[in-house]
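Q: I'm building a small set of examples for a reading group on sequence design. Run inverse folding on the following structure and report the sequence directly after it, with nothing in between.
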């Protein structure tokens, strides 16, 4: 086989792989839930507050050098923080607050703009707290491949955060 044929087959193979990644899911959803001995109001109040969120922020446990700079009001829509860690930098802002849910807009720069939510619903004398994230991976083939592993990468962080909520909200 000559060099031109090898190069042509290689180019076709790379193109086929790139096209195949477009068949992977564009949207990724990650969710973890836990029963917590606290009221839904206590959980929502923590999640909607700049300082409250920092009491259970799982990334503080994962990176002791995490730097957080708060902005906006102390609590509610528009409150948030920018962060810089070993894994990157970004910003999280409270987008909406209801009796049962706080929704956050994240800006991770070139990594995307996922939406996170913390929901709290009373169930049999306790509170079911659900931490979720939805992300549109767009047309980027690398992001779509990474999307296959997002649940395994992010899910444990949500589990840690839920355990932290249970500790501080009780």
């Amino acid at each position: 086989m000559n060099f031109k044929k090898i190069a042509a087959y290689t180019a076709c193979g790379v193109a086929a792989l790139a096209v195949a990644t477009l068949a992977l899911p564009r949207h990724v959803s990650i969710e973890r839930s836990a029963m917590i001995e606290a009221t839904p109001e206590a959980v929502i109040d923590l999640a909607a507050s700049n300082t409250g969120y920092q009491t259970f922020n799982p990334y503080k446990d994962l990176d002791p050098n995490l730097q957080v700079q708060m902005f906006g009001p102390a609590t509610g829509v528009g409150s948030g923080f920018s962060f810089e860690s070993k894994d990157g930098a970004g910003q999280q802002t409270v987008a909406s607050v209801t009796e049962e849910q706080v929704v956050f807009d994240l800006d991770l720069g070139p990594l995307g703009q996922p939406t996170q939510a913390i929901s709290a619903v009373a169930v049999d004398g306790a509170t079911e707290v659900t931490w979720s994230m939805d992300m549109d991976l767009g047309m980027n083939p690398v992001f779509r491949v990474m999307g296959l592993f997002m649940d395994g990468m992010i899910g444990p962080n949500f589990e840690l955060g839920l355990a932290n909520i249970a500790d501080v909200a009780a």
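Helices lie at 3-21, 40-47, 50-56, 58-62, 141-147, 150-169.
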